[in-house]
Amino acid sequence: MEHLTPQEEQLMLYIWRHGKGFVKDYREMYPHPKPPYTTVATIIKKLESKGYVTSKLSGNTYEYRPKIKQEKYKSQYMSGVVNSFFQNSYKEMVSFFAQEEKLSEKDLEEIINMIKNRT
Predict the structure, then answer these.
(1) Rounded distance between C-alpha atoms, residue 48 and residue 45, angstroms
(2) What is the pTM of this model?
(3) What does the alpha-carbon distance between residue 21 and residue 37 come to, in Å, rounded to a whole number?
(4) Which of 5, 21, 97, 102 could form a disulfide with 25 if both were Cys (CB 3.0 to 4.6 A apart)?
(5) Half-sphere exposure (Cβ direction) of 68: Cα atoms closer than 13 Å
(6) Mean pLDDT along residues 26-49
(7) What sign for the dihedral angle of Cα 17, 21, 24, 25?
(8) Rg (CA), the chain
């Protein structure tokens, strides 16, 4: 799976949230000031060439839909982060967030309970 730029990732989040739609639909999801229509169209074409979205001609315009599930992207993205920054250790990642006070003791207890109770 090819890496996404921040602009591509932002648009992909809108596509995952909205589901199938047209460039104008996704453009409306941006905060003000909204990017030009042509900018959104260019980004979505890059997403299509990278295999993240698929298109279908509908009248004189294209309707797009996600081709990759958000969960699959999250999994690969996080695996890359863990590999690059935490020596491929999820324990190191959790330890980092705990030391940075991004995770509370209660959060860690909930994580432990989730691990113990998974089926």
Answers:
(1) 5
(2) 0.78
(3) 14
(4) 21
(5) 22
(6) 97
(7) negative
(8) 18
